[in-house]
C-alpha cells in the first residue's frame, strides 16, 4: 500500500547497475542457411536481418530490422527441462515458469504467456489464435498473441511457432507494434519460420 | 553484521512508538476524531506543484490506458465502498481507476486520483476489508503524504550519492541512508493505517476488517515462500528495506485498536461477492498465471473460507495444479475439474483442463474422451484444431 | 523477447556514457533528398512532451510545474516565430476526444519508440545495426496511416517534440567536482530532447534530431530560443536561424 516513486527507485538503481558491455550486431544475409541460437536449428532468411549482440538467454538469439522494440524475431534453440524461456530478472521473487519434458503442445503458448506476464508485471497478455502446424517435420503449434507493456498504450502483436522435441523446447517468435511495424515484416518472419530445420 | 543490528533497532523503534500511539488512541468511537476535511486543496509550494503536475500527467495516461477496467458496475461498487468508508463529502473529489494488474496494491495521488489494482479486489473477501484498504489510501491523500515523502526521499538519496563517492567502503553509510528513507515511509504508513482505521470505525463496517487484511497478506507471503521452497518469512520487526511496517505489526496494532472500541453495529448486507461475480474468474486466471503456486493456493483457500469451494474456485484450482504439473498435481487437478463439472455450472473449459491433465498423466483414453466432450460442447473454440490433434493421435 | 527494463537501462547507459567521449554519437539524421521548401509546408505540432525539473545531489528528479509551464510557452512561441519567418505555418494539434484520443496516444508512443531506436541503433556508432550503416541511408517511419489521424487531413508534416530537463542543483555540481577527482563520471543535469518531422503523405520520418546533452535554459525566452535552435540542428534548409534569439520580447 503506497504511492510508488518511480523516480526514487531509478535513482537508487544508478548505484546498483553498471553499463553493460557493448555487443556487436552482425548482418544476416538473405538466401543462406544459418545455424541459430547456438543450436542445431537452422533457417534461411528471405531478406537481410540484423542479429543483435545481446542474447535474451543462453540458447537463444534475436534478429531485428529496425531495433528490438520495433520488430523482434527471437529463436529459442532447445530449452532444456527445468530452465526458463529467457534470463530471469529476479530469480528469488519473480521466478519464471520452467520448461517441462512432459509438456504437451498446448502448454507451449501457456509457457510464453506466463513468462511474459511475470516479466511485464501486467495482465495485458492475450493469446488470440492457436492451431497445429508442423515445426521442422515435428508435431508443432502456431499461435498469435497481443500485449502491451506496463504504462504503455501502444499495442504489440506477436506470432510464434514451436514444438517440444526430445524433451526440449524449440520456439521462434516475432513481435512488433500493431501500428505499421507488425505487418511490415510479418512475411519475412514467416519465410524464416517456414524454412526451419533441425 | 552492523546493518543487521541497525535493522533491528530501527524496527524496534517503530514498533515501540506504534504501541505508544495505540495506548492513547484507543478510546470509544466518539472520540476517534478526524481532521477537518478541506475540499479542493490547491498546491502552493514548488515541490507540491511539481508533484501535482506529475500526477496530472499520470492521470492523462490512465485515461487512455488499455489496462483500466471501465465496467461501470465494478467501478460503481468500488466507489460505493469508498464512499461508505470515508463519507460522501470526502469521497466526492476522488477519481477511481481500476487497473488490471494482478498484485496487491492501491495508491492515491495528491490530485485525487486513486488507483486500485485488480489483485487487491481479488484478495479482499468483503466490503469491510476493501473499505479498510481504500480508507488507508485516502488517509495518505488527506494527510498529503506524497509531498512529505518526496522531500524526505530527496535528502536520503543526497546522502547516498555523497557516500558512494567520498568514502571508499561506503556500504554502511549507504545502508543507513536508505534505512532512514524507509523508516520515514513506515511512520507515514502507520499514520495512514490509523486514520484509515478511524474512517472504518465511524463507518458501517466492522473495525476488525483492517487487521483481517494484514493477517491474510502475511499468510499469503508465507505461502508464496513455502511454495518456492524457501522459508516462511514474515518478520517480527520491519526489515531494513521495508517501506511499510511489518504486516505482523500492522495486524497487531489494528487488532488492538478494534478491540479498544465497543462496536455495536448492525450487520450490513455484503454485496462483495455479487459485485465480483463476473470478474472473479478473470482475476483468478490472472493470478494463476504468475507462477506463484503457494500464494495462489492460499488466496483460493482464503476465498473458499468465506464463500465455500464454489465452481470458479474449483476450476481455478484445477488450472493451478495442472500448470505446476507434477504427477501428483495432475491427479489433484483432475479431481478439482471433476468436482467443478459435478456442480453443473462449470465452464466448458473444465473438460479441456480435465482432458489435458489426464493426458499428461498418461491416462490417454479418459483424457481423449474429456477433450472430445470439450470439442463437442464448443466446436468453435479458438484452440479446437489443436485439441483435435490430441484426440486423434 | 520481452525486455521490460530496456528503456530504463538504455537511459542509464546514455547518462553514464555521456561522460565518456569514446562513445561518440551522432545527433541528426534526415531522409536523403528531403527539403522543406519555405512558404509551402503546413506543419502540425503534436502535443509536445516537455518536462522540466531540478536534479538533486543524489540524481533524483524533482518535477517543477512552474518551469515546465514556462518552457512549454517559450518553446511554442519560439517555434512559431521561427517557422513564420520561413513562411511555413505551424499549428498546434487539436486533440480528438473519445476513441480517437487513444489512437493519438499510441502514435505518440510509436514515435518515441522509433526515435529511441534511431538513437540506439543508428546514432550510437558502437551499437549500429549493419543494415543502418549504409551511406546516406535514413529509413524510418510511422507508416502511411498516421496521416489518417483525425484533424491531419490538410497538413503536410507532423512535428513531434520530447524534451526532458533536470537542472543540476548546486549540490549536484559540487558532487560532480569531487567525482571528477575520484575518476567517477557523474553528469550534472539531464538535458535531453528529440524532435522529429514525419511526412504525413508517406509516413516517413524525414528528419530526427536527438540530443542527450542539450544546452539552453528552456525557462527563459532566450534560452528557449537556444534550445529550439539545438532541437532543429541539422534541419534541412536550416529554418531556425535569425528570428528567435534576438527578440525575446516579440515572443511574448
UniProtKB/TrEMBL annotation, chain A:
Taxonomy, superkingdom: Bacteria
Signal peptide: 1-23
Keyword set, alphabetical order: Signal
Protein name as annotated: Uncharacterized protein
Species: Sphingomonas aurantiaca
Automatic annotation (TrEMBL), chain B:
Signal peptide location: 1-19
Annotated ranges, domain Peptidase M48: 96-256
Cofactor binding: number and manner: Binds 1 zinc ion per subunit.
Domain of life of the organism encoding this protein: Bacteria
SUPFAM superfamilies: HCP-like
Record Gene3D superfamilies: Metalloproteases ('zincins'), catalytic domain (3.30.2010.10), Tetratricopeptide repeat domain (1.25.40.10)
Cofactor(s) essential for the protein: Zn(2+)
Keywords noted in UniProt: Hydrolase, Metal-binding, Metalloprotease, Protease, Signal, Zinc
GO process terms (BP): proteolysis involved in protein catabolic process
Coiled coil: none
GO (cellular component) term, any one: membrane
Gene Ontology terms, MF aspect: metal ion binding; metalloendopeptidase activity
Family label: Belongs to the peptidase M48 family.
Protein name, per record: Putative Zn-dependent protease
Gene source species: Sphingomonas aurantiaca
Lineage, broadest ranks: Bacteria, Pseudomonadati, Pseudomonadota, Alphaproteobacteria, Sphingomonadales
TrEMBL record, chain C:
Signal peptide start and end residues: 1-24
Keyword tags: Signal
Protein name: Uncharacterized protein
Amino acid at each position: 500500500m503506497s504511492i510508488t516513486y518511480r523516480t526514487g527507485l531509478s535513482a537508487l538503481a544508478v548505484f546498483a547497475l553498471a553499463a553493460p558491455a557493448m555487443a556487436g550486431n552482425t548482418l544476416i544475409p538473405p538466401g543462406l542457411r544459418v545455424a541459430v541460437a547456438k543450436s542445431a536449428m537452422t533457417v534461411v532468411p528471405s531478406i537481410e536481418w540484423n542479429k543483435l549482440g545481446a542474447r535474451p538467454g543462453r540458447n537463444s538469439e534475436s534478429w531485428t530490422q529496425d531495433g528490438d522494440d520495433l520488430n523482434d524475431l527471437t529463436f529459442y534453440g532447445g530449452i532444456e527441462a527445468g530452465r526458463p524461456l529467457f534470463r530471469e530478472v529476479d530469480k528469488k521473487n519473480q521466478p519464471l515458469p520452467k520448461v517441462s519434458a512432459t509438456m504437451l503442445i498446448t502448454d507451449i503458448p501457456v509457457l510464453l504467456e506466463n513468462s511474459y506476464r511475470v516479466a511485464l508485471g501486467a495482465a495485458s497478455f492475450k493469446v488470440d489464435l492457436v492451431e497445429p502446424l508442423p515445426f521442422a517435420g515435428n508435431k508443432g503449434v502456431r499461435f498469435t498473441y497481443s500485449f502491451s507493456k506496463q504504462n504503455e498504450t501502444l499495442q504489440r502483436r506477436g506470432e510464434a511457432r514451436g514444438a517440444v522435441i526430445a524433451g526440449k523446447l524449440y520456439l521462434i517468435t516475432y513481435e512488433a507494434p500493431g501500428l505499421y511495424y507488425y505487418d511490415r515484416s510479418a512475411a519475412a518472419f514467416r519465410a524464416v519460420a517456414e524454412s526451419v530445420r533441425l | 553484521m552492523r546493518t543487521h543490528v541497525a535493522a533491528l533497532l530501527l524496527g524496534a523503534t517503530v514498533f515501540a512508538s506504534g504501541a505508544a500511539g495505540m495506548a492513547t488512541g484507543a478510546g470509544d468511537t466518539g472520540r476517534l476524531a478526524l481532521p477537518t476535511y478541506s475540499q479542493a486543496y490547491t498546491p502552493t509550494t514548488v515541490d507540491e506543484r511539481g508533484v501535482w503536475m506529475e500526477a496530472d500527467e499520470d492521470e492523462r495516461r490512465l485515461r487512455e490506458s488499455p489496462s483500466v477496467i471501465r465496467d461501470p458496475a465494478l467501478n460503481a461498487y468500488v466507489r460505493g465502498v469508498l464512499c461508505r468508508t470515508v463519507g460522501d463529502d470526502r469521497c466526492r473529489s476522488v477519481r477511481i481507476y481500476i487497473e488490471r494488474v494482478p498484485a496487491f496494491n492501491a495508491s492515491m495521488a495528491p490530485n485525487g486520483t486513486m488507483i486500485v489494482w485488480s489483485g487487491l479486489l481479488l484478495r479482499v473477501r468483503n466490503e469491510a476489508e476493501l473499505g479498510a484498504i481504500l480508507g488507508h489510501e485516502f488517509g495518505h491523500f488527506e494527510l498529503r503524504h506524497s509531498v512529505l515523502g518526496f522531500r524526505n526521499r530527496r535528502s536520503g538519496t543526497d546522502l547516498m550519492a555523497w557516500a558512494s563517492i567520498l568514502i571508499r567502503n561506503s556500504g554502511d553509510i549507504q545502508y543507513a541512508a536508505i534505512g532512514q528513507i524507509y523508516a520515514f515511509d513506515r511512520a507515514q504508513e502507520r499514520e495512514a493505517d490509523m486514520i484509515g482505521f478511524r474512517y472504518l470505525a465511524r463507518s458501517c463496517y466492522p473495525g476488525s476488517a483492517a487487521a483481517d487484511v494484514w493477517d491474510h497478506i502475511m499468510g499469503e507471503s508465507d505461502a508464496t515462500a513455502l511454495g518456492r521452497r524457501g522459508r516462511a518469512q514474515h518478520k517480527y520487526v520491519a526489515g531494513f528495506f521495508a517501506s511499510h511496517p511489518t504486516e505482523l505489526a500492522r495486524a497487531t496494532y489494528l487488532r488492538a485498536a478494534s478491540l479498544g472500541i465497543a462496536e455495536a453495529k448492525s450487520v450490513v448486507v455484503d454485496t462483495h461477492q455479487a459485485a465480483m461475480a463476473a470478474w472473479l474468474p478473470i482475476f483468478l486466471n490472472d493470478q494463476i498465471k504468475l507462477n506463484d503456486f503457494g500464494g495462489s493456493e492460499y488466496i483460493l483457500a482464503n476465498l473458499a473460507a468465506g464463500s465455500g469451494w464454489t465452481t470458479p474456485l474449483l476450476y481455478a484450482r484445477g488450472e493451478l495444479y495442472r500448470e505446476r504439473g507434477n504427477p501428483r498435481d495432475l491427479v489433484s487437478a483432475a479431481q478439482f475439474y471433476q468436482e467443478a463439472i459435478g456442480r453443473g455450472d462449470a465452464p466448458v473449459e473444465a473438460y479441456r483442463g480435465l482432458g489435458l491433465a489426464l493426458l499428461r498423466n498418461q491416462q490417454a483414453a479418459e483424457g481423449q474422451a474429456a477433450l472430445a466432450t470439450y470439442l463437442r460442447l464448443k466446436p468453435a473454440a479458438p484452440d479446437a484444431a489443436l485439441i483435435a490433434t490430441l484426440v486423434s493421435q | 523477447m520481452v525486455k521490460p527494463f530496456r528503456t530504463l537501462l538504455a537511459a542509464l547507459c546514455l547518462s553514464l556514457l555521456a561522460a565518456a567521449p569514446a562513445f561518440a554519437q551522432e545527433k541528426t539524421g534526415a531522409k536523403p533528398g528531403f527539403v522543406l521548401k519555405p512558404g509551402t509546408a503546413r506543419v502540425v505540432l503534436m502535443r509536445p512532451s516537455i518536462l522540466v525539473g531540478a536534479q538533486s545531489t543524489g540524481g533524483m528528479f524533482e518535477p517543477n510545474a512552474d518551469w515546465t509551464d514556462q518552457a512549454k510557452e517559450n518553446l511554442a512561441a519560439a517555434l512559431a516565430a521561427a517557422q513564420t519567418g520561413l513562411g511555413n505555418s505551424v499549428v498546434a494539434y487539436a486533440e480528438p476526444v473519445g476513441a480517437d484520443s487513444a489512437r493519438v496516444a499510441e502514435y505518440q508512443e510509436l514515435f518515441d519508440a522509433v526515435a529511441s531506436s534511431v538513437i540506439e541503433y543508428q546514432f550510437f556508432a558502437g551499437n549500429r545495426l549493419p543494415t543502418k550503416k549504409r551511406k546516406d541511408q535514413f529509413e524510418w517511419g510511422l507508416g502511411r496511416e498516421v496521416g489518417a489521424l483525425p484533424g491531419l487531413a490538410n497538413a503536410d508534416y507532423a512535428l513531434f517534440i520530447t524534451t526532458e530537463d533536470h537542472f543540476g542543483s548546486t549540490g549536484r555540481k559540487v558532487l560532480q567536482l569531487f567525482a571528477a577527482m575520484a575518476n567517477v563520471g557523474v553528469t550534472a543535469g539531464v538535458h535531453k530532447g528529440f524532435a522529429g518531422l514525419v511526412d504525413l503523405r508517406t509516413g516517413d520520418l524525414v528528419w530526427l534530431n536527438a540530443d542527450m546533452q542539450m544546452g539552453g535554459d528552456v525557462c527563459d525566452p532566450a534560452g528557449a530560443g537556444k534550445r529550439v535552435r539545438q532541437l532543429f540542428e541539422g534541419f534541412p534548409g536550416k529554418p531556425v536561424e535569425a528570428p528567435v534569439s534576438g527578440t525575446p520580447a516579440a515572443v511574448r
